[in-house]
Amino acid sequence: MKQTPDSQLHNKSAGWSALFSEPVSELVKRYTASVDFDQRLGLFDIEGSLAHAKMLAKQSIISEQDLADIERGMAQISLEITNDQFNWQLDLEDVHLNIEARLTELVGLAGKRLHTGRSRNDQVATDIRLWLRAQIEDIVLALKQLQLALLRVAEREAATILPGFTHMQVAQPVTFGHHILAYVNMFSRDTERLIDCRKRTNQLPLGAAALAGTTYPIDRAFVASLLGFEGLCENSLDAVSDRDFAIEFCAAASILMMHVSRLSEELIIWMSPRVGFIDLADRFCTGSSIMPQKKNPDVPELARGKTGRVYGDLVSLLTLMKGQPLAYNKDNQEDKEPLFDAADTALQTLLIFTEMVQGLTVKPDNMRNAALQGFSTATDLADYLVKQGLAFRDAHEAVAHAVKVCTARQCDLADLTLPELRAATGLTAEQQALITSDVSHCLTLEGSVSARNHIGGTAPNQVLAAVARAKSRLEAD
Ligand code: ARG
User: Fold this and answer.
1) Of all protein residues, whose CA lies closest to atom 3 belonging to ligand 1?
2) What pLDDT is stored for residue 289 in this prediction?
3) Are the C-beta atoms of 334 and 320 separated by less than 8 Å?
C-alpha cells in the first residue's frame, strides 16, 4: 500500500480535516484506517454512488453535466479496481474516501459534489448491504449445488443398508440414502434462513445521511429501485447504526456450518479404518509425513474446525453492537472483517464439499456387517409381536429376553430357529404360538428398512420418492 508522503493531506484530501491543526499521528492513522480490508467493497461503493448521483441529477441537486462527469470518472475507477491498478492509499482511510478522492482527481468539481446529501455512515451501510446481498446469492447457489450432489449419492445408495445409531450405539438399520437425505433437509432449511435474511438485508439506508436525514429534496425510492432494494430503512438513526442483518447472516452461516460440521464428523468416523463405511477420493485427503499408512480426511476436519471461526464471527458482531448508543459509532467499522470471514468461510466450505461429495464411495459390505451386529432388528421383532396381539411393553420385554439369550450364544436373532426363538422370548406357550415362520422376514435388514414405508421413513422406495421431491423443489428455485 502506497502512503502519500505530504502531511498536508490531512486537510487536503481526507475529506474531514480542515478543522484540525495537526495531522493525525501515524499510529492513529494505521489504527483507524480500514482501506486494507474494506477495499473489497469498492465496486459496490461505486454502484451506490452512481445511483445516488443519478438521483441528485434527477432532483436537480447536481447538474446533468456533473452526473456525466461522475459516471465517466467512475467507469475509469471501476476499471482500475477490476484490473488491480487502483492506488489504494492508507492516508485516505477507507474505501469511500479513496474512491471519492480519485474521482475528484479525474473529474474535478463534480467529484466534490457527489457527497451532497450523503454521509459515509449511510454510504457504508449501503455498501455492506449490497455486498452481503451478492454473497447470500452465491452461498444459496452453492447450497443448491451441494444438495444436488448429495441427492445423487442418496439416489445411488437408496437401498444400501448401514446401522443407524442413537447414543453412538447400534439402534436400527437405515438406508444410506436416507441418512444423506437428512443433510439435504438441513441444507434446505439453511437456504430458507438465508433467503429470509436477504429480505431484511435488501433495504436502502441511503438518505439517512449522517444520522438525521438530509435537507436536500432527495428521492429515496428512486435510489432503492436503481439498486434493486426491496424497501427503505424507515428510520435514519436505525439505518446508519444497526447491523442486525449482518448478525442474522452470521447466525444463519453458523447454523449452516454446524450442519457441515456434523456431516464432517460423520465422514471422519465413517472413514476411520475401524469403521470403514466410506472412502473419500485421494484428492481430498493428505498423508502423514511420518506414518506411511495414513490417509487423513483433512477437508472435513478443517471444515469442522472452521465452524468455530464462524461462531466467533457471530459472537464478535453481537458483542460489537451490544454497547453502542444510537447512532453510528466507529465501532461499526469492525463489522467488516467478521462478516467477510463468515461469508468466505461458508462459501469456500460449501464449494469444496460439493466436489468432495462427488468423490465419496461407500463400502456396502462393511456397512451391512455392522448392521448385522448389535441386534438392530430387535424393535422389528417387538413390533411383530404387537401386531400378533401382545401389548408393546410385554413385547419389548420378550425381545429383551431373546437378545439376552443370543448374546450368551454369540448369535443374532435371525440365527435362531423358530422353536429356539419362541423359547428365547420367555413368553407363555400360548403367546409363543403367536410367533410363526413369517417372523423371519422382519428380522432381516431388508425387511426392517422396507417396512418403514411412509413419508420420512427409511424404506428404499421412500428414499427415491424423497429424492424426487427434493429435486423438483430445487429445480423450481
Ligand atoms: N470506514 C467507516 C466504516 O466502516 C465508514 C464510515 C465512517 N464514518 C465516520 N463518521 N467516521 O464504518
Assistant:
1) 333
2) 79
3) yes
Band of the pLDDT at 14, cuts 50, 70, 90?
low
Calculate what percentage of the chain has a pLDDT beyond 70: 96
Q: N- to C-terminal Cα distance for the chain?
A: 43
Amino acid making up residue 217: P
CB distance 110 to 65 below 8 Å: yes
CATH number, domain containing residue 456: 1.10.40.30
pLDDT per residue as tens digits for the range 448-477: 999 999 999 999 999 999 999 999 999 987
Q: Are 210 and 343 part of one and the same domain?
A: yes
34 close to ligand 1 (CB < 6 Angstrom): yes
Q: How far is the CA of 123 from the centre of ligand 1 (A)?
A: 9
What is the pTM (predicted TM-score) of this model? Answer: 0.94
Asked if residue 110 has a cis previous peptide bond (ω within 30° of 0), the answer is no
Nearest atom in ligand 1 to 335's CA: 4
| Phi, then psi, of 175 in degrees rounded to 5 | -90, 145
Instruction: Looking at the structure, tell me whether residues 242 and 351 fall in a common domain.
Output: yes
State the distance from the centre of ligand 1 to the C-alpha of 332, rounded, in angstroms.
Answer: 7
Last residue of one domain, picked from the residues 324, 339, 369: 369
Q: For the chain, percent helix, then strand, then coil, each to nearest 5? A: 65, 5, 30
Ligand 1 neighbour 243 (Cβ under 6 A): no
pLDDT band for 15, please (50, 70, 90 cuts): low
Task: Read off the pLDDT of residues 397-425 as tens digits, 9 standing for 90 and up.
Answer: 999 999 999 999 999 999 999 999 999 99
Give the C-alpha separation, 345 to 306, whole Å. Answer: 7
Position 166 in a domain? no
Pocket residue to mutate for ligand 1, from 120, 131, 206, 240, most atoms within 8 A of Cβ: 120
Average pLDDT of span 256-285:
96
How many angstroms separate the CA atoms of 458 and 448, rounded? 9
Instruction: Give residue-wise pLDDT tens across range 176-200.
Output: 999 999 999 999 999 999 999 999 9
Pocket test for ligand 1, best of 121, 127, 240, 339 (most atoms within 8 A of CB): 121
pLDDT value of position 16: 60
Domain that holds residue 325: 121-157+174-369
Please give the grid coordinates belonging to residue 340.
467477510
Distance (Å) from CA 458 to ligand 1 centroid: 54
CATH of the domain at 98: 1.10.275.10
Ligand 1 within 6 A of 264 CB? no
Does the CB atom of residue 120 touch ligand 1 within 6 A? yes
Ligand 1 in contact with 94 (CB < 6 A)? yes
pLDDT for res 459 = 98
